[in-house]
Design goal:
The chain has 256 residues and is α+β, with helices and mostly antiparallel strands. The chain contains five helices and eleven strands. The N and C termini lie far apart (57 Å).
């Protein structure tokens, strides 16, 4: 009987441990990075490139936006004809963390240089600042004609469109990329397209060809604009959990 009781106890402990481990996995931090690429390729093969990105982190019913903060300084580069030449260059890069509970319109902002202090912020204002508010996201919800090409690879779909070019600013080609592996991501460029594809729109690529010299219409500049979602692995979860604890304490004190 003792052996049977021990076996029962061991079995129960195993299931308790498995349950806790599964619960912990369910509540783990998950993160994505929203990236914007802007590139102009000129006829002389020179390239102008800009990239902007920030992270979105999920935990239970919390969303954390990690927004880079860059400090700049002027560096003296010399003189030209008695004129002092200076260049504005990055001096320091840090991050600000914006934490909000899902369904709320107001959250807390923490600056990485002093994580013990925080201020309130408006979610709507932040979304506008980062250009991911409903008005800006209409760009991804365009009604296009049927794709001229579709490529499927397991859980991924790529569609190519050539929409009517009503004027020079309209894109010549638009590519849409979907990935079912990222359906868990709460952020959406287009809820309509996600639902239609039963997937997640993870990347949109706009290609526009234009001429900046009316006398040389055949000489084109290629403009590429890419917006994409990438899953990100975090190596500073402890710091984020501390911020969530601070948020919960503020909430208990009704300071939010």
């Amino acid at each position: 009987m003792k052996i049977i009781n021990i076996l029962i106890l061991v079995t129960l402990l195993y299931f308790v441990f498995a349950f806790k481990r599964g619960d912990k996995a369910k509540d783990k931090l998950r993160s994505i990075t929203l990236i914007s690429h802007f590139k102009d390729t000129y006829s002389n093969d020179s390239v102008g490139l800009e990239t902007d990105s920030f992270k979105v982190i999920y935990f239970k019913d919390y969303t954390i936006y990690e927004n880079p903060s860059i400090e700049y300084e002027f560096i003296k580069r010399g003189k030209v004809n008695d004129t002092l030449i200076s260049e504005l260059v990055p001096k320091d890069t840090s991050s600000n963390f914006y934490i909000i509970q899902n369904g709320s319109k107001q959250g807390l902002k923490f600056e990485s240089k002093n994580l013990k202090e925080c201020t309130t912020f408006s979610l709507d204002s932040f979304l506008v600042e980062r250009a991911i508010d409903p008005g800006n996201l209409n760009l991804f919800d365009l009604e296009l004609n049927r794709p001229i090409a579709t490529k499927k690879n397991r859980n991924q779909i790529t569609e190519t469109f050539t929409p009517p070019k009503l004027d020079a600013e309209y894109s010549d080609t638009i590519y849409r990329y979907f990935d079912k592996n990222l359906k868990w991501v709460k952020f959406s460029y287009s809820k309509r397209l996600d639902a239609e594809k039963n997937s997640k729109l993870i990347r949109t690529h706009f290609v526009t060809l234009y001429s900046d010299d009316p006398s040389k219409p055949a000489v084109k500049i290629r403009n590429d604009i890419i917006y994409e979602i990438k899953e990100t692995h975090l190596n500073y979860s402890d710091k984020l959990m501390q911020l969530i604890e601070q948020f919960e304490k503020k909430k208990e004190k009704k300071e939010i």
